[in-house]
Automatic annotation (TrEMBL):
Highest taxon, organism lineage: Bacteria
InterPro entries for this protein: AAA+_ATPase, ABC_transp_ATP-bind, ABC_transporter-like_ATP-bd, ABC_transporter-like_CS, Oligopep_ABC_C, P-loop_NTPase
Kinase listed as a keyword: no
Keyword annotations of the record: ATP-binding, Nucleotide-binding, Transport
Name of the molecule in the record: Peptide/nickel transport system ATP-binding protein/oligopeptide transport system ATP-binding protein
Limits of the ABC transporter domain: 6-256
One term of GO molecular function: ATP hydrolysis activity
Species for this entry: Brevibacillus centrosporus
Amino acid sequence: MTEELLVVKNLKKYYPITGGVLGGEIGVVKAVDDVSFTVKRGETLGLVGESGCGKSTTGRSLLRLIEPTAGEVYFDGVNVSALSIEEMRKMRRDMQIVFQDPFASLNPRHNIEKILEEPLIVHGMGSSAERKKRVQEMLEVVGLSSYHARRYPHQFSGGQRQRIGIARALMLNPKLIVADEPVSALDVSIQSQVLNLMQDLQRDLGLTYLFIAHDLSVVRHISDRVGVMYLGRIVELTSSAQLYSNPLHPYTKALLSAVPTPDPDAARERVILQGDVPSPANPPSGCTFHTRCPHVTDECRTTRPLFQDVGDGHFVACHLYKS
Ligand SMILES: Nc1ncnc2c1ncn2[C@@H]1O[C@H](COP(=O)(O)OP(=O)(O)O)[C@@H](O)[C@H]1O
Ligand SMILES: [Mg+2]
């Protein structure tokens, strides 16, 4: 058994842009452009970045809910990219996803029992009585009650619906959960309850999380390590503690500048971003961050910086990280 549960190598997802009179392909959106990372067993890897930087595409490509354009994904030692559709279906028992908007992902015409039972039916698991028992168990595990099984999604609050989304992801006893902004749609007061639940579940069930958020303050507490994405690439990846105390990439510094610090005396370079995120259909040359970087040099405009380990597993893609 390897230490890494998930190994992602050079993952790319390009969406074709069609148009013109003949409706042919006139370009590509580089939604994910050469992303590599690993997630260790029992670990939470946070993935952060502004809207549109490719977080969801990365998460979904891992499960092949979207077919990647290139790259390899190894899950539990198996090359997921090479599996047939049927083999992939079986593999998904072990890799599940929790979506941002639980309401959109729960069938409004089905009661909770039916919604939670469905993954078991799809995978041909258990008798009807066993499945219903499992539904009851899981409702309790996520902090709901057995009588909730008879109710419908619209009868729940946002926080409760996300608990149902989590219960559904857990029905098959998975190893990995890709949580795609699971608390972004919730009131701040409810966010911490759901985050606490996810941490308890991780501890009790030995889960591994890829936890996606657009907000560094959300991933900070739940993540062991954090990867920062910009325009389809990971620009920095290191332990949570390192990322917050010693960020090396100017984009990470800019994101951190936007997060209120509990300690106002904390010495931290403030980086205010100029301009907008460029289009992933036409990303800048060299370092894709160069159009917004306060430290830009000629090299940054022409040469893509390597994503390299600069010590103790602190990865950064920047020509100027030392300065
Ligand atoms: N099905 C699609 N077709 C074309 N472009 C897409 C599609 N899905 C996402 N994109 C584009 O890919 C980029 C990354 O999207 P996404 O992964 O959803 O980002 P994030 O989750 O970080 O907000 C965006 O520019 C988005 O517009
Ligand atoms: Mg998203």
